[in-house]
Design a protein that fits this description.
By secondary structure, the chain is an all-alpha fold. Helix content is about 50%, strand content about 5%. It has a two-stranded antiparallel ribbon.
């Protein structure tokens, strides 16, 4: 058989296809577009997957859709048309975090679809956690003081299970009373960030589709709705923290789990550039930021 796969390659493709199938949750072949592919790629990047892993995922996916094209099940292969060089292996997205008012609007709108995702959105905004970390956090990770948590699962570069970090929950601590008392805090959501992020992306597109249809029926100009990635909530937390306390850069680095302060400084540069130009909106009555440093001698939980 020409182009036969080795057993190792076949196993790798099978693993990728299982991941993709779970993320798509039964999406019809004809509904898969380059936007669907982008959602999946962004979700995998948020899950801190290596670029080679994402490329393997797309290769496996493209083979399946290529076969579908030969069978006339679909007209085009959206994975093949996807710009891999642009979106894989580099930060292709411009830094465009939502302002606090926009986050509040997003929470209210997404709650009509899923209250669990609405809680997740608020949690990400209040803690700056990565999506994978938030989906993996367990009640036993919360400290007795109820204000701190030690992250063990979903932490970047923690394949060996030895790398952890302790974070301040800030105002997210006020959410604990309505989250599960045992097990994962977001137990109703998949622990796989690619699944959650992809489904969220589908909801965003459906929401815009409804607006477009309503606009046509009413004979008015349709409104392009703001669409933010779940990862952008982490960025919004970081920027709010620097607005509230410009001296917190090193504490913020530790909260976010950056290995170098140079990574954290991208938010400082944003506030001096694009953020200053558009007068980035911060409303401390809506959401918090990194709490102030403890006074010397205070307990740290």
């Amino acid at each position: 058989m020409p182009h036969a796969l080795t057993s190792k390659t076949a196993w790798r493709y099978e693993t990728s296809l299982v991941q993709i199938s779970e993320a798509l949750e039964g999406t019809p072949l004809g509904d898969i577009t380059t936007a669907t592919v982008l959602d999946f790629v962004m979700a995998r990047r948020e899950d801190v997957c290596a670029s080679s892993t994402v490329r393997n995922d797309l290769t496996a996916w493209s083979r399946v859709l290529g076969y579908a094209v030969t069978k006339d099940w679909i007209d085009v292969n959206p994975v093949r048309n996807f710009e891999r060089k642009i979106y894989i292996g580099r930060d292709a997205d411009m830094l465009d975090p939502p302002e606090d008012a926009a986050v509040q609007t997003l929470i209210e709108e997404v709650a009509t679809w899923s209250t669990d995702v609405a809680d997740l959105v608020r949690w990400l905004r209040e803690t700056g956690m990565r999506l994978g970390e938030a989906l993996a956090i367990d009640r036993q990770d919360i400290h007795p003081d109820g204000r701190h948590a030690t992250l063990r699962r979903g932490v970047k570069r923690n394949a060996g299970g030895l790398k952890t970090r302790t974070i301040d929950l800030g105002r997210a601590a006020d959410m604990l009373y309505r989250l599960p008392a045992k097990g994962r805090l977001f137990a109703n959501l998949s622990a796989d960030s690619a699944v959650v992020s992809t489904r969220y992306g589908q909801w965003c597109r459906q929401r815009q589709g409804r607006e477009d249809r309503e606009g046509r029926v009413e004979g008015r100009q349709t409104v392009p709705l703001a669409r933010y990635r779940l990862h952008d909530l982490r960025r919004a937390f970081a920027i709010a923290s620097l607005i509230d306390d410009p001296t917190c850069i090193y504490r913020l680095m530790e909260q976010l789990g950056h290995s170098s302060v140079k990574t954290t400084e991208i938010y400082t540069r944003f506030l001096r550039g694009e953020g200053a130009q558009r007068r980035y909106g911060r409303d401390s009555n809506r959401f918090g930021s990194l709490p102030p440093a403890l006074a010397p001698g205070s307990a740290n939980g």
